[in-house]
Amino acid sequence: MALSPPSPTLRKLSPFISLSESNSFPLFNRTPLRPPTCPLPILSNSNFSSSTDALLYVCRCVSEAGDLGISDFDDHESPHTLPHHLPDTWHVLGLGQAMVDFSGMVDDEFLDRLGLEKGTRKVVNHEERGRILRAMDGCSYKAAAGGSLSNTLVALARLGAQPIGGPSLNVSMAGSVGSDPLGGFYRSKLRRANVNFLSAPVKDGTTGTVIVLTTPDAQRTMLAYQEARKCGALVAITASDVSCIERHYDDFWDIMANYADVIFANSDEARTLCHFSSKESPISATRYLSHFVPFVSVTDGHRGSYVGVKGESVYIPPNPCVAVDTCGAGDAYASGILYGLSRGVSDSRSIGMLASKVASVVVSQQGTRLGVEDAAKLAESFAFHCQSKS
Fold this sequence. Notes:
single chain; alpha/beta; nine-stranded mixed sheet; four-stranded mixed sheet; globular; Carboh/pur_kinase_PfkB_CS; kinase activity
C-alpha cells in the first residue's frame, strides 16, 4: 500500500543528532561511509546567530548571568575559547539548544504563590526569573548543563564510555552559548561528561536558562541534514513539541521524508505529525510514521512506549520504578535507542527495552543525568542480553 504524508509548511528543528560508525546498521540496510572529520563546515560559528536564537517553548532568560555566581570552568581555561584537543573522528554529533537548567523540588503552595500552573511551560523575562530564584532561595536547587539534546548526549557518552560491544563512543555537540559565566559553566560540564562542545561562544552573548520546578507528585513545571547524509551518518531528529510541529509542519515532513533515519516523539507529537485525532492510539501513529522514517520511537509516559520499523510497531512496557522526577525521561530514553543503534543491534525490541530501562533509572532520581555507574551496568547488561540472543 502506497502512503503519502498527510497534507494540511524548521528552518529550526529541535535537536538533530547524527550517528556515524565503522560498523554497519542492519536496521537500515546500509553501511555508513567513513565518519566525518572534525570539524565539519556546518559547525562554523556563523551558523549560530546568537545564544538567544532558540525555540521559545521552554522557559528561558536572556539576561546577564554574572549575578548567579556560576563559574565552574577550569581556571586555566578562558570561557571564550574552544577545547584544544578534539578527536580526529566522532561517532555521534548533536546540534541543538544549549541551556543551563536550574532545578529544584517545590510544593503546590509554592507554585500557587508565584501564579504558576503545574505541568506547563512558560517564557519568563529577567525580572520574573530573578523573582522565582529568590523565592527558591530556601529550597534545595541546583544548576546543570541542560537542554534535551545535552541530556541525551551525556547519557549516551556514559553508556558508550567502555568498549562493550564496540569501541568507546566519541560524542560531540554544537550549539549556541554566550561568553558569559553560564556559557563557560555549560561547556565545562559537558567536557567533564566526555562530550566535546565544538562551538565557540558568541561574543557578548548570553546563555539561555530554564527553571524546572518539580512537585512531590513528580510533575514538572518548566519555565545541517544534507551534509550528515553525504557523510554516511544516520540522522536522528526529535519532534520538539506539538506547537513547533504545527508551526513548521511541512518542514518537518520534508526532513523526515528526505533525510531522517530516526525520529523521536511522544504520543501527542506523533499524532500531530500524522494529523490523527487524540482518540487514535500511539501504536497507529508509530506504524504510520515508520512507513516514511526507518526507525520510529514514540513514548507514552507511564503507559510505556513503541518502536516502529517498516510499518510494524512493537510495544515496550515501562520498566517498573518509583517516579521521583520525570524531567529528562524522554531524553534518557532517546540515549538508549541511539546506543543500541550505534552498537549495530538489529532487534528493535531489545533496543526499546534498553531505552525503557535507561529512562526508568533517570526518573527514579532527582535530576536529568544518567549516573556513570548506572550507565556502565546498563551497557554491560545490554551486551549480555544481546549475546544471549545471538
